[in-house]
Amino acid sequence: MNKVKVIKKNSYFTLVATERISKGEVILKLTGTLSGQPNKYSVQADETKHIFSFSDDPNDPASSFRFINHSCSPNSYFDIPNLTLLALKDIPKNEEVVYHYCTTEYDMAFPFTCFCRSENCLKEIKGFRYLQEKIKNELLPYLAPHLKKHLKESSL
Fold first, then answer.
1. Alpha-carbon distance 142 to 144, whole Å?
2. Phi then psi dihedrals of residue 136, to 5 deg
3. Cα 84 from chain centre
4. What is the pTM of this model?
5. What are the residues whose beta carbons fall under 8 Å from the beta carbon of 153, sequence distance 6 or more?
6. Contact, 102 vs 139, CB < 8 A?
7. Count of structural domains within the chain
8. How far apart are CA 73 and CA 90, in angstroms?
9. Which domain covers residue 124, as residue numbers?
10. How does strand 69-70 pair with strand 98-99?
11. 8 A C-beta contact, residue 2 and residue 61
């Protein structure tokens, strides 16, 4: 761990690798407070709880998960049961660390238009519940447990 830092890129903050991160490596621990109300920066931990960072300070390493941006072609994912962010593939030094928000968020409090420019960009990010079944199944290995339950329900 400690191979990432938050930087300001153009008009936004983002998390970047400060050195190479290997596939499967723990990038950071997810720490914060729990709430029943989501916001733009929380991570959904289960059906009713969302994790909020302790602060909005980009220099606070314990709150760096707040600055992880979305990509439809992510290089990391949250292992919610272990409260960690893991590398989905090797991440080179200076690359932005990104995850697919629909792997934790069932129904996003603040949907948005995606500009990730990946080949498989979904364009609109609204939450797991709005994805086509094909995409839900593609995300299956990286889904938070509360979303896997919804996948099972929708395939009945």
1. 7
2. -55, -45
3. 11
4. 0.93
5. none
6. yes
7. 1
8. 13
9. 4-154
10. parallel
11. yes
* Matching residue, tokens 């989501």: 38
CB distance 21 to 33 below 8 Å = no
Alpha carbons 101 and 57: distance in angstroms, whole number: 21
b/e map of 116-143 (b: 16 or more CB within 10 Å)?
Answer: beeeeebeebbbbebbeeebbeebeebb
> What pLDDT, on a 0 to 100 scale, did the predictor assign at position 154?
55
> Range with the lowest mean pLDDT among 52-56, 71-75, 150-154?
150-154
**What are 64's two structure tokens?**
């760096």
The amino acid at 24: G
> Residue 152 has what DSSP assignment?
H
Half-sphere exposure (Cβ direction) of 133: Cα atoms closer than 13 Å: 5
Q: What is the CATH number of the domain that holds 117?
A: 2.170.270.10
